[in-house]
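Hey team,

Filing this mostly as a record. A colleague (T.K.) asked me to run one chain through the structure pipeline before their review meeting, and I want the input and output archived in the tracker in case anyone asks later how it was produced. No errors, nothing strange. Just documentation.

Input sequence:
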Amino acid sequence: MGLVMSEPRFLALPNTATEQADVVILPVPLERTVSFKPGTAKAPNAIFEISDQLEFFEEDGGWSPFKHMTLAVEPAFAEPASLDEAEWHARLTRHTASLPTENLLISLGGEHAITPSLVAARMPEPGTVIFLDAHADLRDQYESSRFSHACPAKRLLEQGHNLLMAGIRSVYETEVELVGCEPRISLFMDWDLHGKGQWESFLQKVSTLNGPVYLSIDMDVFSPSCVPGVGTPQPGGLSWYQMVEIIESLFTGRRIELRGVDLVELVPEPSRVSEMTAAKLLMKLVSFWGRANGFDGKPMTGSQMRIEYE
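Output structure:
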């Protein structure tokens, strides 16, 4: 059973002052435009509660990150959902922009609608958003809302960013048309990623990104066999070890200009497998980012990122 805490904590660790933290976690439990399974507002607390079941040692990086790094979990961004949508998202952008920038910021949704507001704060100049999702999210509006969880990728294009999209397996006709004529979109459909050539091509793109980068992970990019608890599940999807390979490709052997990460669209479910996967994924992100930035004094490259068991 997860630890009941008076303040949100990850791994049950005490929170450092935000200004001094190497890693900052921002809960954003927005649940406003959900169109299928409800529950995204409960995701951040569910992840924090189950995280005390994780080990402090991260096996793929081969170290205990929080022996070397400090952590702050921010209070949840909880502006009332009754606010005008544009004002709510403007406030999220202003709040995010007020946080220190010399750290790893991981935001926990909530629905995918939060991503453009976070990116506007952390990456105001054009950059690349790695967009891992079962859905293209390229609609101009959905159910009369431009701030719907079906629209964040379109808003990111409007901000001037390139999109590296992967895991997509549910698209609308106008989204396909947009992908076909928009040179800033690199799209890897989920089925294609199950072929060795396309998978290696995608990882090569990830490993050679330059300039500012933001990583957005909709948990429905995973196979439902791995993460059943999401707002809009789709058959197919990435495996756990594919996700680890993506993170390894992003960080191995270099210090990229990573402006932020978000994990969104999780819906806690009775088995608690989904929130455990999200918590462990958060730990992987911290570990690989920390190793790439030399927090243990020994940045690793290639296969050295994993333990050798021979």
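Quick notes for T.K.: DSSP finds nine helices and eight strands in the chain. The CA atoms of residues 116 and 156 lie 6 Å apart.
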